[in-house]
Specification:
Elements lengths: L9 H22 L16 H17 L20 H10 L5
Amino acid sequence: MTNYTPLSVLISFSKISETLMFNRLNQYLQVNKILVPEQFGFRKGNTTGKAIFTLTDNILASINHPRQTGSIFCDLTKASDCINHETLLRKMQTMEFVE
């Protein structure tokens, strides 16, 4: 008993809740057509390779037909750390996403 280390179920619980939340949010975004086709992150079938191909194709098309080209890259991996969760829940309730 002195060498006993209890296993935490919190990691499993958080993974399950994260998966459920992702599926629910992803379905909502798709049904309501909120995401633009150019959104590549976390979307099935939209890999980083496809994003690079699309960017390269657009740049080459701009070179062939002289016009300006710009791009914005956002890394939102830590975005949830910056969000006021009460405000997020309130907005999700108004969108009828959560009860």
